[in-house]
Amino acid sequence: MIENNETKEACLHRELLEELGWEIEVHHYIGNAERYFYAEKENVYYLNDGHFYICSKVREHHVPIEDDHILHWISSSEAQQLLVHDHQ
Fold first, then answer.
1. Residue 39: which CATH number?
2. How far is 58 from 60, CA to CA, in rounded Å?
3. pLDDT in single tens digits along all 88 residues of the chain
4. 18 and 66 in contact (C-beta within 8 Å)?
5. Three-state DSSP class for residue 13
6. CA-to-CA distance for 44 and 42, rounded, in angstroms?
7. Residue 87, in any domain of the structure
């Protein structure tokens, strides 16, 4: 999630460093997809705005800060079955 006044690219760099411990290079912006979803527990609709980039990993710095995020490489067909939101 974008914090304070950071740019989308700065957010991408920070999130991947926090969640995976990766330093990345951003090659180019692909686009975005917006989708409303309903959160039953909160009885509210949220707008989820996803931004997509082509990036490459430059290096791994450390163990990720957020230990509940684990990277698993899966096939695109398996991803389609597992992802919750249409724009993921």
1. 3.90.79.10
2. 7
3. 889 999 999 999 999 988 888 999 999 999 998 989 899 999 999 998 889 999 999 998 877 666 676 777 888 888 878 877 665 5
4. yes
5. helix
6. 5
7. no
